[in-house]
Design goal:
Blueprint: E1 2-9, E2 13-16, H1 17-20, H2 28-35, E3 39-42, H3 49-64, E4 73-77, H4 88-95, E5 101-105, H5 111-124, E6 130-138, E7 156-164, E8 173-180, E9 188-189, E10 196-198, E11 204-206, E12 214-215, H6 217-238, E13 248-251, H7 256-265, H8 277-280, H9 287-297, E14 306-313, E15 317-324
Parallel strand pairs: 4-5, 4-6, 13-14
Antiparallel strand pairs: 1-7, 2-3, 6-7, 8-15, 9-12, 10-11, 14-15
């Protein structure tokens, strides 16, 4: 399996920390020093998450030199689809990828990494030849914009990668591990609203709907700085790879302090830590592919580079993958 293309798409609207200070009691310095975020992108009335997914996918297809009709599977990692029944089929139609099976995978901020690992299994066992993986979320629609603790953290975006099954001795995916702990799920969730209305007779029916994002920021931070390094260490040891051998550390872009803590744990210099958190905030399942595409296109990530990546967040869920970027053939 080879990573042969990448793409990304972001909304036009930019919301800065200073602009948020007009909504809640905060300021640019407070947000930047605690999170590393300066601004975020928010989907506007002339955009949709499906549009961003389609645009990101088209860029990945172009880099891979693929025609959409040759894609076998489209897997979208998202927790905020335009349609609860599935976002991927809509994107399949937008791309004209008529031969691709298309479905969604939900694992919040771990979603893209989980989708990447899932897709790799189909490619490695020979079921499919070409797969598009998309990470995309529109968390702006589920924010309490009066909550200064959480509204400063999130943004919208989409990123995509193209994966291809090829004959080679070295698979791009070198090693991985995924974990979940539902007992700590209340630390970060987006629950249904428990609103029951009369149905017939004495029977009641739950009216569909969801609350805003609920998060215990301190607990999520402690979870990330403890569990991510521990799992990364296991994967590195299992693959007999030293931290010094890594070209890049590519973590879910949640908080700059988390990125710094993981890098410090393995003595990885900051110049090897990929981060664009300042410009986009936490875009959930989109952060890893969005960052990867940016680094590929500006030349930082080169063919053959070894990358350690980790997704972590709601569920609680977390995972680690070691892979090499091959680029278009």
């Amino acid at each position: 399996m080879s990573l042969v293309g990448s793409g990304s798409a972001i909304p036009a609207q930019i919301v800065t920390n200073d602009q948020l200070s007009l909504l809640v009691d905060t300021n640019d310095e407070w947000v930047r020093t605690r999170t590393g975020i300066r601004e975020r992108r928010i989907i506007g009335p002339d955009e949709s998450l499906a549009d961003l997914c389609s645009d990101a996918s088209k860029s990945a297809l172009e880099m891979a030199n693929w025609d959409a009709s040759n894609v076998d599977m489209i897997l979208i990692a998202t927790s905020t689809p335009d349609d609860l029944f599935g976002l991927a089929p809509k994107v399949q139609a937008k791309l004209g990828a008529a031969n691709a099976v298309a479905f969604d995978l939900t694992a919040a901020c771990s979603g893209f990494l989980f989708a990447f690992i899932t897709a790799a299994q189909f490619l490695q066992n020979g079921s499919f030849k070409r797969v598009l993986i998309i990470g995309a979320d529109q968390l702006s629609g589920w924010m309490d914009w009066s909550d200064r603790r959480s509204c400063v953290l999130f943004g919208d975006g989409a990123g995509a990668i193209a994966l291809e099954a090829i004959d080679q001795t070295e698979d791009a995916l070198i090693g991985f591990k995924m974990k979940s702990d539902g007992s700590r799920g209340d630390c970060l969730n987006l629950p249904q609203t428990r609103n029951f209305v009369p149905l017939v007779g004495s029977h009641l029916n739950q009216k569909g709907g969801f609350s805003n994002i609920q998060m215990n920021g301190q607990e999520v931070y402690k979870f990330a700085v403890r569990e991510v390094p521990a799992l990364l260490e296991k994967v590195l040891n299992n693959c007999e790879i030293s931290p010094e051998s890594l070209d890049w550390l590519l973590l879910h872009q949640a908080n700059q302090r988390i990125l710094n803590a993981v890098a410090d744990r393995f003595a990885i210099p900051q110049q090897k830590v990929l981060t664009n958190l300042a410009n986009y905030g936490n875009t959930s399942a989109a952060t890893i592919p969005l960052m990867l595409d940016e680094a590929v296109r500006d030349g930082r990530v080169e063919k053959g580079n070894l990358i350690a990546s980790s997704g972590f967040g709601a569920g609680l869920s977390w995972g680690v993958a070691l892979f090499r970027w091959h680029g278009p053939s």
